[in-house]
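Action item from last week, closing it out:
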Amino acid sequence: MLNSPPQTSATGKVNCTVLVMRTENSDGTTVIHQLAIGYTGTMYIRSNATNVPGHWFDWRKVITGNEPSPVAVVLNAGWTYHATPSNIPTYTKDPLNTVYLTGIVLRASGAGSTIATLPAGYRPSRETRIYGNGDSELSITTDGRIFCSDGRIGQQIAIHISFKATN
């Protein structure tokens, strides 16, 4: 439907939160409004007068946002990207200040546990951790460091996490 909120973003994320409000017109009729806020920050609204059951007016776009473009993570020495381009680690941030970090990295050499460092504005407001197989743990610290507690050479680490960024 033209001007309707999409169900998913181009990257496959769920794209829409719908809020419902009820108002009363001066003539006493009740109107229900739906407000949809998408992943990109685009906002849509539509209304339904209760005297016409099941009839919704078309969605109207009220605020337009842009889906953020993924940025490739710059890896530290000893770490490399997984073989396929679709698995290159990237980060994005939506208009609601949520950071999405996804991809696969491979420990190629060395002993450093820090995989990469996220730039200011993309760092979590508190340390974020993911626990993997065995004793491995992936952490993202408030200073932006992404590190793995058990990064053996040859080990692949899948990353798929979202968190609120500091302002």
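Closing note: The chain has a mean pLDDT of 79.
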